[in-house]
Amino acid sequence: MKFKKISVLMTVHNDEKYIKASITSILKQSYKNLELIIIDDFSTDDSIKIAKKFKDRRIKIYLLKNKLGRTRSLNYGLKKCKSNFIAIQDADDISLNHRIKKLSKILTKKPDIGLIGTDCRFINKYNNSLRKEIFKKKYLSNLNKVIKYKNFIAHSSIIFRRDAFGRKKIFYNEGYTYAQDYNLILRFLKYSKIHFLNEKLVKVRQHSESMSYD
Asked: Which residues, including other chains, have CB under 8 Å from residue 148's CB and lie 6 or more apart?
């Protein structure tokens, strides 16, 4: 099976403490046919200085001249992505080595699936695991119903097909400053199939700074 190129989209705003580990986790993916699109939303720290130290042709960095906020930054990044398959990676999160390979394989085999996400493990700023869970196995028996009132799919775990709604390419709804990822998932639920892989393939970082970016 020939795997398609994957565009990994990362928006950045003052993530100097975590961006190195986040970028490294993408570059070390077992799935090599990817590009990493980094959108810097007017950071005032050394985030992009750190990102530029990586010498990998798959990385493309775009610097915004004004702070747009997360939703508009995501949409700006989507315009730069060359692939129809989009993987999201927040700049403070970490993907396990086979995340992209496992999810892209499912999307390639099942064209009726528009979006796929996975379970995740929560970590703190020191990389220690937290005992927080948002997904329970019982959800699998009624996935489509549960997701309508509880978002258990981490943003950094998803890969989606940009043409899933037809010929018009998908963007985030800029009416949402927060929960733009949940809105996107619900739109996919309405217009295509979604799939959830019950496997922790992402480490989602919980820290005070992550709540301050909009």
From this structure: 186, 189
Give the residue carrying structure tokens 């020939």: 2
* H/E stretch holding 195: strand 193-205
CB neighbour list of residue 181: distance below 8 Å, 6 or more residues apart: 88, 151, 153, 155, 158, 172
pTM of the model: 0.94
List 12's β-bridge partners, or say none.
40
Residue 63 in contact with residue 40, Cβ under 8 Å? yes
User: How many angstroms separate the Cα of 28 from the Cα of each of 77, 128, 201?
Assistant: 22, 21, 14
Task: Give one DSSP letter per residue of 93-151, joined into a string.
Answer: -EE-TTHHHHHHHHHHH-TTEEEEEEEEEEE-TTS-B-------GGGGGGHHHHTTT--
pLDDT digits (tens, 9 = 90+) for 55-84: 999 999 999 999 999 999 999 999 999 999
pLDDT tens readout for residues 158-182:
999 999 987 778 999 999 999 999 9
Rounded-to-integer distance, Cα 163 and Cα 51, Å: 30
Q: What is the DSSP letter of 5?
A: P
Beta strand pairing call for 59-63 and 94-95: unpaired
How many Å apart are CA 39 and CA 30, to the nearest integer? 23
Our measurement of the distance from residue 68's CA atom to the centroid of its chain's CA atoms, rounded to an integer in Å, reads 18
